[in-house]
C-alpha cells in the first residue's frame, strides 16, 4: 500500500520553486521519490540544497514566465517530465478603477497564460513518447471569491480553475491527469504583512475553522498526493486546502 503514495523514478518540474509554497512542493515531491527540477526566475539553489541535504535528488532550472511562449519552449530543455506543477504567480494591487493595462497583462501572462503554455508543452512531449503524466496547478481561494483590489489576480485564478477542468477533459484518455490545489491563508513571505497586523490577522483566523494559518507543507502534501498512483482516478478536481475557510 505504501508504494501507492510513492513516485520513485519520476521527474517533476515545479515553477516558482525558490521559496514559500513552491519550495515546499519541491521538497515534498522529492521526499516521495521524484527527481525535482526546481524552476524559477530567481535562483532555486537553496531548494536544491534542502532536497539534497535530506537525501533527495534535484536540480535548478532557470525559467522566466514573463514570456509564457518562450518559457514553454525552454521547458523542453528540462528533459522528459512526468509531473508538472504550475505554482509560480505574481500579484498586483490597486483599485479596479485605477488598475493599469500593463499590470493586467503582467499578471495574466504569469498566472494564466504560462499555465496553459507550459501544460500544452508538457502534453505535447508526453504524447510524442506515448506517455501519461500529472499536472497540478496552484489555484487560490480567489478562484471562487472576488477579493478586493486584485482584479487581474482574481480573474487569472478563476481562469486556472476553468483551465484545469478543460485540460482534464481533453487529456484524461491520453493518460494525463490535470488537477488544481487552492491554498487558503498560508504563512509565507506574501502574507507576512497580514500576519503582522494584529487586527487583520485576528479577523482572518476567526474565519478559519482550523484556527490557524496554513503551512506551505500543507499544500505540498496535497500536491504530492495528486501526483501519486493513489490519485490515478482523480482529474479535473480543484482541491481546497484552506482549513475550512470556504466551508464557513
Determine the CATH topology.
Answer: Rossmann fold
Q: What is the name of the CATH superfamily?
A: NAD(P)-binding Rossmann-like Domain
Percentage beta strand:
15-25%
Question: How would the global form be characterised?
Answer: globular
Determine the number of helices (DSSP H or I, runs of at least 4 residues): 8
Compose a concise summary of this entry.
This protein has 248 residues and is an alpha/beta fold. The protein contains 8 helices and 7 strands; from the N terminus they run βαβαβαβαβαβαααβ.
What this model shows, in words?
The chain is α/β, with parallel strands linked by helices and 248 residues long. It has a single domain, classed as NAD(P)-binding Rossmann-like Domain (Rossmann fold), CATH 3.40.50.720. The chain contains 8 helices and 7 strands, in the order βαβαβαβαβαβαααβ. It has a 7-stranded parallel sheet with strand order 3-2-1-4-5-6-7, sandwiched between helices. α1 (20-31) crosses α8 and α3 (68-75) packs parallel to α4. The chain is globular. It starts with 10 loop residues before the first strand and ends in a 7-residue tail after the last strand. The model has no long low-confidence stretch (mean pLDDT 97).
What brief labels describe this structure?
single chain; 248 residues; alpha/beta; Rossmann fold; 7-stranded parallel beta sheet; 8 helices; 42% helix; 16% strand; globular
